[in-house]
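#structure-requests
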Amino acid sequence: MGHREDLLEGAKRCLLAKGFVRTTARDIVKESGTNLASIGYHYRSKDALLAQAYVELVEELSVAFDGEMRGAPGSLERFAEVWSNIIATMREPGSLWRLSMEVVSMGDQLPEVRDHLARAQREGARGFVELFTGMPESEAPDEVVDTLGAFYTTLMMGVMAQWTFDPKSAPEAGQLTEGLRQVIEAATRR
């Protein structure tokens, strides 16, 4: 690997070990075996590097969301399967989702990071559309990403917050699915 990749991998390890706020440029350099100047050369700033490392960590973790899918795209069974897979990642020790809550809560203090992650969040919404509906990301119209994708992103943020704050009472996939079923039932009554 070159310095760019070494920095990125070192930043990922630092984020998982120390979080966003407590990770210093020197920590990243030590973990990556590079030098301080290489951060600015390859990423402009420590915060930009950490933002990129965070996005890649989420992308790597999102592979676990797929799991084994038997439910038809768009079905309640698929909804339950996907949420079961997502929630399984939240149970793991050192879960990335705790880091995610740190990043969300400090967004106003780091506008460059917030802007970078906001763009990545839109792509995440596009990925949710494919995951739940089976519609390829490349075919998802912006209006679907801005509605259905935003719905799933908002639900993800809430689930993430609950699992971070109080895992003992956080919802399981079955509870989320039953809640959605009740919403559908109430909305379709005449």
